[in-house]
């Protein structure tokens, strides 16, 4: 990881910001320009776009990048970050291409459409965060615990989730407190080192942010 990028990321986390944003390029409904306009009008200083990706993309990633560049020119006082959310693959790889990796600043790691195998999940997740291939990126584990919740085992596997969070943090990854999905559970939030914690909105529209910022999730 480039030290200056990590330092800049930490500085931005201390500013008024929105982390974890999806746009109309995938399953969001608002444009990059709309999010940036919302941020400026609400006194925010930084936005982190973290669009869904796969190795085989179904949208034009270069257009996504170009729109972020245009937004930086249109909103010069706003710190705008380019990121991607890639899902974990069985065995410990990520569903993201080298081409996309070369164009992003933030690499979000997520668990979507994963086999219902708890052992495989744990092994794959640990391999992702210990793999030196990803160390040069600012890495964030987003909505941690979602897989366990989907399996209906989150309540009895909080110890396992704490272990996985510790493993990710020990390997230099940031851990998202996902405000939209309320993950990880509040009862284990204290186990997350503050220097590794990121507050994320998982926003899919400006409409959601308007309501969420006025009425923060419990």
Fold and architecture overview:
Strands 1, 2, 3, 4, 5, 6, 7 and 8 form an eight-stranded mixed β-sheet that branches. The chain has helices spanning 3-13, 32-41, 61-74, 98-101, 118-130, 146-150, 158-170, 206-214, and strands spanning 17-21, 46-52, 79-89, 93-94, 106-110, 138-141, 174-178, 197-200. The chain has one domain (3-214): Metal-dependent hydrolases (TIM Barrel, Alpha-Beta Barrel), CATH 3.20.20.140. It contains eight helices and eight strands; from the N terminus they run αβαβαββαβαβααββα. 36% of the residues lie in helices and 20% in strands.
What's the layout of helices and strands?
Blueprint: H1 3-13, E1 17-21, H2 32-41, E2 46-52, H3 61-74, E3 79-89, E4 93-94, H4 98-101, E5 106-110, H5 118-130, E6 138-141, H6 146-150, H7 158-170, E7 174-178, E8 197-200, H8 206-214
Parallel strand pairs: 1-2, 2-3, 3-5, 5-6, 6-7, 7-8
Antiparallel strand pairs: 3-4
């Amino acid at each position: 990881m480039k030290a200056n990028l990590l330092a800049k990321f930490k500085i931005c986390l201390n500013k008024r910001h929105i982390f974890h944003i999806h746009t109309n390029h995938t399953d969001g409904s608002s444009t990059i320009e709309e999010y940036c306009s919302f941020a400026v009008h609400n006194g925010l200083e930084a936005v982190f776009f973290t669009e869904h990706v796969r190795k085989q993309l179904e949208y034009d990633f270069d257009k996504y990048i170009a729109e972020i560049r245009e937004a930086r020119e249109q909103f010069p006082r706003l710190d705008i970050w380019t990121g991607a959310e890639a899902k974990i693959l069985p065995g410990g790889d990520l569903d993201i291409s080298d081409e996309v990796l070369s164009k992003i600043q933030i690499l979000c790691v997520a668990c979507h459409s994963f086999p219902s195998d708890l052992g495989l999940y744990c092994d794959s997740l640990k391999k992702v965060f210990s793999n030196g291939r990803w160390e040069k990126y600012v890495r964030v584990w987003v909505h941690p615990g979602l897989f366990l919740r989907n399996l209906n085992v989150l309540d009895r596997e909080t110890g396992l989730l704490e272990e996985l969070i510790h493993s990710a943090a020990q390997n230099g990854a940031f851990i998202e407190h996902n405000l939209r999905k309320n993950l990880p559970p509040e009862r284990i939030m204290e186990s997350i080192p503050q220097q590794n914690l990121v507050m994320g909105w998982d926003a899919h529209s400006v409409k959601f942010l308007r309501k969420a910022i006025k009425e923060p999730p419990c």
